[in-house]
Design a protein that fits this description.
about 25% helix, 10 helices, single chain, alpha+beta
Amino acid sequence: MEIVGECIYNNPPVLVTPSKPTPKLALYLSNLDDQRLLHFPIQYIYVFTGTLDMDTLKVALSRVLVDYYPLAGRLRASNEHDGKLIIDCNSEGVLFAEGFLPGLTAGDFILGHAKPHKSWKKLLYKDEEQSFVCTPPLVVQVTHLSCGGTILCTAIAHCVSDAFGAAHFLRAWARAAMSEDSELAHPAVAPCHDRRALAPRCTPRIAFAHPEYTAASGGDDASAVAEASSRLFAPPLSPVSVTFTAEHVARLKKLYAPSASPLEQCTSFEALAAHVWRAWVRALDPPASLPIKLLFTMGIRRLVKPELSGGCYCGNGFVLACAESTAGQLAASAPDAARLVQETKQRVDDDYVRSVIDLLEVRRGCLPDLAATFTISSLTRQGLEDIDFGAGTPVHFGPLTSEVYCLFLPVIGDPRGATALVSVPQAAADSFERCCHDGLDDVDVEDKNQLPNIGDGMAS
């Protein structure tokens, strides 16, 4: 859905600072935080039919920043850590903009099926002259609509927080906005910002192959992969949004782990990830022998030893897990694809996570291997979709843009469903959508009895 017109700003943006003094320190970022992969903002959009009160939002934000003070700081390169990014916790403040967009209504997002368009970027204030590092870790814009509704957009620097940490903050902000009780501005469990639990070992020890960061070696094979993968992401790209209901997810679990399969059962995430990965390959139709990877984010808060701060760790608490196959093998067997996802998850433990951290220490600045690679990040278990800031629950929640990596998004009104959003080459968009629907035209009534949540600890 294209948004026409431009946002009207009657006043310049302001800086919202913590309402009380906060720690003044240079906050160390772990290697999982400060990897080049995460040098971009997590951008969310909320659409409400009601009106958000600006003063209430600002006062509530000021109160919660006392606990989430890194968001009011500034990123900078550290002299002590060879240029690694750190957060200068200086209470400089969050950039907060207010705009008005005539002609746009909250209902337009529902009628337009809420598929992101590049024009949506106008809903988030941006200083074109500022680099990623110079931009405040948190930028907020509230846009008033002609229907009386409101759009709230947030951009949180990904190297400061992952989706779990972002959700922790947003829920606290909403809770503060809904109550005048200052104590409710503080979360029941205080957020943990200390990243030292994920510091590299004194002598780095890379104990695993880590294909998620390994590109093909030189030679004819590398050239073939590069040539084929260039077609997998050939512009122009088109966003595709496919919603899987709870019944669809239950059906996929049966299709990907049939009774005759060695795979006795698979989780909702394993079935959905395998299905969308296969749909992508089938739609783009690369050579059958082409090596294909699946990267997916895997939450580690409960995997590392000791666990990260009782579930309130607000740094990046995930690593990339990597499944590998060939295009022909993926297209041929659904259970095999689910088995690969399942086995990949099982390999990720504390030793694996420590190995990733050490790899990122030794190979500072390395990037994941994205050639002929499908990437998935799940936002379905963060509780992001039903946050109420005082205007009721949103009628739409999602990312501000669609990218070549796939997001599993929550479905408002169907907590056990999921929407897959990803941009693919325009020529393959219709085929990808058809492949995603394969086998789901008719769902059994009994499927409704097997409806666990999507997610499996995934977060990014």
